[in-house]
Design brief:
This protein is an alpha/beta fold and about 270 residues long. It has eight helices and nine strands. Bound molecules: nicotinamide-adenine-dinucleotide. Belongs to the short-chain dehydrogenases/reductases (SDR) family.
């Protein structure tokens, strides 16, 4: 743990905490003194992250939950509150890539799967956390959108994913406005290409190869900053700032974190 922890005494809930950006944010929050509730679909991965946090001297709870199933998620929040006494911050980050394909060939159910997981999952993650944050007298929420759906609309076959991420950015701004009177801040991070396991959570239909659009696929070298693609730990630093009291006048912001990639690929 750091010498003067920035999240000392806080309790944070992180969804999608078993991998990638969520895992990195959970580790970073714990390093800065927060107790962390780790929520993910996969028991093994959240258990592993819990072990990493404990080994470093932090405190964490591992909870196997599908955030698009409200009953499971509500039960998980109750467990967090009874174990840790309160909830201060929420990083609603869990998401999937889902189906990638031309609009006319996307199965209706595949569309629903992406939208249900990403949009309804984010909505319920926020909705059921609100009573705890209100009870606390203040709170901070960060949602994970993406460049896809905020600045970039040219990735072939990304209509379902980009629609889900645009919805999250809109929902986050509406939530910031609605929750401000309760001293609850809501911000949105919109990452560019970050090295995680996200591509394993999607399926590209073969027709994508034949789509008659100009290809923009984030090829090598499209990130202007010299280091190339981002790392989950870099997004975690931004999330830490937005969740912390250091950002106490920041709400309703959509913060792009992409090494200036979206200025190059649009
Ligand atoms: N990696 C990128 O380039 C990138 C860019 C922009 C936005 N994002 C967004 O960042 C977020 C995190 O993704 P990542 O890149 O770390 O991917 P990842 O696949 O490494 O991690 C996502 C985690 O979310 C979990 N998850 C997914 N759906 C869930 C559900 N319904 N309930 C509980 N857990 C669930 C997965 O099990 C996984 O552990 C996602 O919302 C993604 O859309 C990623």
């Amino acid at each position: 743990m750091s010498n003067s922890p920035r999240m000392n005494g806080k309790v944070s809930v992180v969804t999608g905490a078993g991998s990638g950006i969520g895992r990195a944010a959970a580790l970073r929050l714990a390093e800065e003194g927060s107790k962390v509730a780790l929520i993910d679909l996969h028991a093994e991965t959240v258990e592993k992250v819990r072990g990493e946090i404990q080994a470093a001297g932090g405190q964490a709870l591992a909870l196997t939950v599908d955030i698009s199933e409200p009953a499971q998620y509500r039960e998980a929040l109750q467990k967090v509150a009874s174990e840790y006494g309160k909830i201060d911050t929420l990083f609603a980050n869990a998401g999937i890539l889902g189906v990638v394909g031309p609009i006319e060939s996307i199965e209706d159910d595949d569309w629903d799967k992406t939208l249900t997981n990403n949009v309804k999952g984010t909505f319920t993650s926020v909705k059921y956390a609100i009573p705890y944050l209100k009870e606390n007298g203040k709170g901070s929420i960060v949602l994970t959108s993406s460049l896809s759906g905020t600045r970039v609309f040219s990735q072939k076959g990304f209509s379902a994913y980009s629609t889900s991420k645009a919805s999250i950015a809109a929902f986050g701004q509406m939530a910031a406005f609605e929750l401000a009177p309760f001293n609850i801040r809501v911000n949105i991070v919109a990452p560019g290409t970050i090295e995680t396991n996200i591509s394993d959570t999607g399926e590209q239909e073969p027709e994508v190869e034949n789509m008659n659009t100009k290809p923009v696929e984030f090829p090598e070298g499209t990130v202007p900053l010299p280091e190339g693609s981002g790392k989950p730990e870099q997004v975690a630093n931004l999330v830490l700032f937005l969740l912390s009291d250091e950002a106490d006048h920041v709400s309703g912001a959509v913060v792009h974190i992409d090494g200036a990639e979206s200025l190059f690929v649009g």
